[in-house]
């Protein structure tokens, strides 16, 4: 259900638990009146200017509930673009919970998840791409993800889409003008200039499509799956990478039955490390299910660390098959157990000893360097790109690209201007879906449900 901006909404905007402060946020036409109903300060907030802070107490059910600072925002100069009040209460859930109760008793209703940001979008304070950046920022678990979200929030992506839109409108405008005078058989538009504009737009769209993978790796992290035969030392390597004993290590083959995940920060980028069950032909029961899961994990991996027991000299023969099974995935062969006698490093592999690395993490440096290198170009491109498409944008971008390409072909083969304009309108529609110029409740619901209550 889309937000009804005639209603005034309220929620606790901060995380629960013991804390210094807790913020109750109120927004909507009656926001200031609702707070005035329970706030006792020197002056009434209804008389206050925007961007002013007021100390006072909140009273409810005949008693003082908390001492607060109320910050007043006047429309349109607030996050939501509406009249709004932020009550900075003491932390901990009880006082702020009762402050919220007081505000709800005076005309506000409880906000739904993401409803403040939805209002910011509805009231034109930000477009849909920026609203998504707010959610990305809240969910960011690495500096790289945070930086990308801030760039998007500041409007670099939106600007790029805006330029693209202008270029296409330019072409459609010219062509449509021509149509108005079609009886007179005039051509206003210089065909080669229009064609140039269209190939420029197509180039921009192509580059945007290509940012989806760097964007995903930045936001969600690089999926690094540790695979190999039982007892190769996969779980030991996982623990060494994390610097603590997360996975169970045992001499008994088949100990790891399910995949275990943990996060690792490398140079501000998130790497999600996944330990899997050992791959053994002929396994049955729970172990076989574990292997099926390992296989699924490898299919989703960005990088596979294929661990072989280099002292036993087994496992390397699996590698060609492995690389063939997961084309496009970087496979790094890790020759483990280098501390044991007779261990060697097969060509192209990285030698490590998980057992020694657990005692001295610097011993993992060569492996970490290979890991970084395997994704460096992608992550680099993410750092410099003004825009990083997400999965929602991808379909729209592809359809826009198809339409612009068709329009370009039609133009060059001398087809009539209205055919070209028709395709460009499709492309404009797709871009509008990304920025939110065109939306459905369904799409909004999906986007804003990712938010917390109070955001
Ligand atoms: N000597 C030596 N033993 C290791 C090394 N890495 C793992 N192991 C041992 O190999 C056995 C299997 O290890 P584990 O990590 O459970 O292997 P997984 O089945 O591949 O997860 C355990 O007894 C580990 O202590 C290593 O680098 N050196
Ligand atoms: Mg294991």
Helices and strands, with pairings:
Blueprint: E1 9-12, E2 21-27, H1 31-36, E3 39-41, E4 52-60, E5 63-73, E6 84-90, H2 93-105, E7 109-110, H3 115-122, H4 128-139, H5 143-153, H6 156-180, H7 191-210, H8 212-220, E8 222-228, H9 234-242, E9 260-266, E10 269-275, H10 285-300, E11 303-309, H11 319-325, E12 330-336, E13 350-351, H12 354-359, H13 365-384, H14 391-412, H15 417-435, H16 441-448
Parallel strand pairs: 1-7, 8-10, 8-11, 11-12, 12-13
Antiparallel strand pairs: 1-2, 2-6, 3-4, 4-5, 5-6, 9-10
Helix pairs in contact: 4-5, 5-8, 6-7, 6-15, 7-14, 8-13, 14-15
Bound molecules: guanosine-5'-diphosphate and magnesium ion (MG).
Magnesium ion (MG) binds next to helix 9.
Radius of gyration, in angstroms, nearest whole number: 29 Å
Helix content: 40-55%
Instruction: Assign the CATH topology of the largest domain.
Output: Rossmann fold
Strand content: 15-25%
Strand and helix order: EEHEEEEHEHHHHHHEHEEHEHEEHHHHH
How many beta-strand elements? 13
Class per helix and strand makeup? alpha/beta
Shape: flat
Ligands and ions found = guanosine-5'-diphosphate, magnesium ion
Q: What value does the average pLDDT take?
A: 91
Taking the alpha carbons of the first and last residues, their distance comes to 17 Å
How many DSSP helices?
16
Q: Give the strand order, joined by hyphens, for the main sheet.
A: 3-4-5-6-2-1-7
What is the total number of structural domains? 3
* Biggest sheet layout: 7 strands, mixed
The appropriate CATH architecture of the largest domain is 3-Layer(aba) Sandwich
């Amino acid at each position: 259900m889309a937000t009804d901006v005639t209603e005034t909404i309220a929620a606790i905007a901060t995380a629960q638990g013991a804390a210094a402060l807790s913020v109750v946020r109120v927004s909507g036409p009656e926001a200031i009146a609702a707070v005035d109903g329970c706030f006792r300060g020197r002056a009434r907030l209804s008389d206050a200017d925007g961007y002013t802070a007021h100390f006072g107490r909140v009273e409810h059910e005949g008693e003082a509930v908390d001492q607060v600072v109320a910050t007043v925002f006047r429309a349109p100069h607030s996050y939501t673009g509406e009249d709004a009040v932020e009550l900075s209460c003491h932390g901990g859930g009880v006082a702020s919970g009762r402050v919220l109760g007081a505000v709800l008793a005076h005309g506000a209703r409880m906000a739904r998840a993401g409803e403040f940001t939805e209002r910011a979008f509805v009231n034109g304070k930000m477009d849909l791409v920026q609203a998504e950046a707010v959610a990305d920022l809240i969910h960011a678990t690495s500096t790289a993800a945070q930086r990308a979200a801030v760039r998007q929030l500041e409007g670099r992506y939106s600007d790029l889409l805006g330029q693209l839109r202008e270029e296409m409108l330019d072409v459609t405008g010219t062509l449509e003008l021509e149509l108005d005078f079609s009886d007179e058989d005039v051509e206003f538009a210089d065909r080669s200039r229009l064609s140039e504009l269209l190939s420029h737009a197509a180039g921009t769209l192509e580059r945007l499509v290509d940012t989806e993978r760097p964007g995903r790796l930045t936001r969600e992290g690089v999926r690094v799956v540790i695979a190999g035969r039982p007892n190769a030392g996969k779980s030991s390597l996982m623990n060494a990478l994390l610097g603590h004993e997360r996975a169970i290590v045992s001499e008994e083959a088949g100990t790891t039955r399910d995949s275990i995940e943990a996060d690792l920060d490398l140079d501000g980028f998130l790497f999600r490390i996944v330990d899997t069950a050992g791959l053994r032909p002929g396994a049955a029961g729970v172990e076989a299910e574990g292997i099926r899961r390992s296989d699924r994990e490898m299919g989703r991996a960005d990088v596979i660390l294929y661990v072989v027991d280099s002292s036993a000299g087994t496992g390397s023969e699996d590698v060609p098959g492995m690389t063939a099974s997961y084309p496009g995935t970087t496979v790094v062969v890790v020759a483990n157990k280098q501390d044991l006698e007779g261990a060697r490093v097969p060509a192209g592999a990285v030698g490590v000893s998980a057992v020694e690395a657990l005692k001295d993490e610097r011993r993992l440096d060569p492996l970490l360097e290979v890991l970084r290198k395997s994704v460096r170009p992608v992550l680099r491109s993410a750092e410099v790109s003004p825009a990083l498409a997400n999965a929602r944008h991808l379909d729209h971008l592809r359809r826009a690209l198809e339409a612009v390409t068709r329009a370009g072909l039609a133009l060059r083969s001398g087809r009539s201007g209205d055919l070209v304009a028709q395709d460009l309108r499709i492309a404009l529609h797709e871009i509008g879906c990304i920025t939110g110029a065109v939306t459905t409740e369904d799409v909004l619901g999906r986007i804003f449900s990712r938010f917390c209550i109070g955001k």
